[in-house]
Design brief:
Elements lengths: L5 E5 L3 H14 L2 E5 L2 H10 L4 E5 L7 H11 L6 E5 L4 H9 L4 E4 L4 H16 L11 H16 L2 E5 L6 H11 L8 E5 L5 H9 L16 H4 L4 E5 L6 H13 L1 E2 L8 E2 L3 E6 L3 H7 L4 H7 L3 E3 L9 H17 L5 E2 L1 H9 L5 H15 L4 E2 L1 H4 L16 H19 L4 H8 L3 H10 L10
Parallel strand pairs: 1-2, 1-3, 3-4, 4-5, 6-11, 6-12, 7-8, 8-11, 13-14
Antiparallel strand pairs: 9-10
Helix pairs in contact: 2-3, 6-7, 10-12, 13-15, 17-18, 18-19
Length: 444
């Protein structure tokens, strides 16, 4: 189950602060409420947070000053969301251009702010150290290689379609580095940052390096020093940025924008993309030398349609997480709904699965989720019998889906599948016949 979001609230207004703390408590958030800049910097230095929510005006400083301090002093800067009046919107927008996450204007919708916090922490909530990456053979093979890669590799490339969980694999690599849990993990989506801001985001900048650079700021390479830097969607970089990235990977040193000295960095660099970098090299849109630098070790995360055994497992985790977050009874899937989940191709992968379950939980009044609730646009008819299936029928369906998934994972090879399942070939044949899988393609 995913941990509760950790929020640092910086707000001097007692009424607003108490209201936010109480709402965050009801949502299950771990909240540290700071009423001035001094206590905020102390709290941020001593603890790690998923999100910082800060008022722009404070008794002893400003939210902007705290953000600037955090950008230069903390090994990993959490997303900042600013609370501002209409008169300071331009200032908040300027902060976003410098790396802040978002802002809300007073009076703001409390539900929208809670949703914003949940969105910012959703990616991290998919994966924790204690839980496996999946139950499918493909994900278990990835997990088995992670400890060795984390200790031996300096650069890892993760490839896979959008939404398959590439950042989750990167987080697991980071966790495998060991240590006391203080190593920073910094994630940057290269495709989500404007081209003219990406260089300063990656490598930092000196004060006065460009218009708006009022303070010296460390880039994410410096912030991740001693830990892990996850660069998502590196295929979106321009050729000019690729040249700079190549130099940093080769030299393990960065030079800030507007600076002259080199700063050494020691970290695990994990790059990721949904693009075919090899094809981009052939097209001339991705540098060949950079490709060979980042492709020393490659991990391919398969899409959900290639590891269907993970779908019921992920669905159970998401439903438990939704119940905990909303304080409502945990929803359950009817056998037909679970069958629909497993059969659907999921072009959006894990991200789409999560959203489908969240939508179904919102729209369904009862405990049991139907296939119609999960796929309202598919024209699925609701089941004729509204009573839950018997335990025997449910277990039969689970066994059939599990064996079918194992057969698909092993290319229909009966011997390999039986060995994986820990049963004899004869026993597997009997189960296939009993469960209506006797026509499944098989090998020797």
């Amino acid at each position: 189950m995913s941990p509760a979001p950790r929020v640092c609230l910086i707000e001097d207004d007692l009424i607003m602060g108490e209201s936010l703390v109480e709402r965050f408590r009801l949502e299950g958030f771990e909240t540290c409420w700071c009423r001035d800049g001094a206590s905020a910097t102390r709290c941020l230095r001593e603890r790690s947070f998923d999100v910082v929510i800060s008022d722009m005006r404070l008794p002893d400083t400003t939210g902007e000053a705290i953000f600037d301090w955090a950008s230069g002093a903390l090994p990993g800067v959490p997303p900042f969301v600013f609370i501002t009046g209409y008169g300071a919107v331009e200032q908040a927008v300027a902060l976003i251009k410098r790396g802040a996450q978002d802002y809300v204007t007073k009076p703001f919708d409390l539900d929208a702010l809670v949703a914003k916090v949940l969105d910012l922490t959703a990616a991290a909530g998919v994966c924790t150290r204690e839980e496996p990456l999946g139950v499918s053979p493909a994900m278990q093979r990835i997990e088995a290689t992670i400890p060795r890669l984390a200790q031996a590799a300096r650069t890892v490339l993760i490839v896979g379609e959008s939404g398959v969980g590439k950042e989750c694999v990167a987080q697991r690599l980071h966790a495998a580095l060991g240590g006391d849990g203080t190593r920073p993990f910094i994630a940057v989506n290269c495709g989500a940052i404007a081209e003219n801001l990406l260089e300063a985001e990656l490598f930092g900048h000196q004060k006065g390096a460009f218009t708006g650079a009022a303070h010296t700021r460390a880039g994410v390479f410096e912030q991740a020093n001693g830990g892990t830097l996850f660069l998502d969607e590196i295929g979106e970089m321009t050729l000019a940025m690729q040249v700079r990235l190549l130099r940093v990977i080769q030299e393990r040193q960065v030079t800030r924008v507007g600076g002259s000295g080199s700063i050494p960095v020691d970290l695990l660099l994990v790059c990721a993309t949904h693009r075919d970098l090899k094809a981009m090299v052939a097209e001339g849109t991705f540098r060949e030398d950079l490709f060979y630098r980042v492709n020393v070790v490659q991990i391919r995360v398969p899409p959900l349609r290639e590891r269907r055994e993970d779908i019921p497992w992920l669905a159970a985790r998401f439903l438990a997480e939704i119940a905990q977050r909303t304080g409502t009874p945990r929803r359950r899937l009817r056998p037909a709904a679970e069958e629909a989940l497993v059969s659907y191709p999921w072009p959006g992968n894990v991200r789409e699965l999560r959203h489908a379950l969240e939508r179904a939980c919102i729209l369904s009044p009862g405990e049991w989720l139907t296939a119609e609730a999960l796929f309202p646009d598919a024209g699925l008819a609701p089941p004729g019998d509204d009573a839950p299936a018997s335990l025997g029928d449910y277990l039969r369906e689970c066994e059939r889906r599990y064996i079918r998934g194992a057969l698909e994972a092993n290319g229909g090879q009966i011997g390999q599948t039986a060995e994986q399942l820990g049963i004899s070939r004869k026993n597997l044949w009997e189960k296939m016949k009993k469960l209506g899988l006797g026509d499944h393609p098989s090998g020797r």
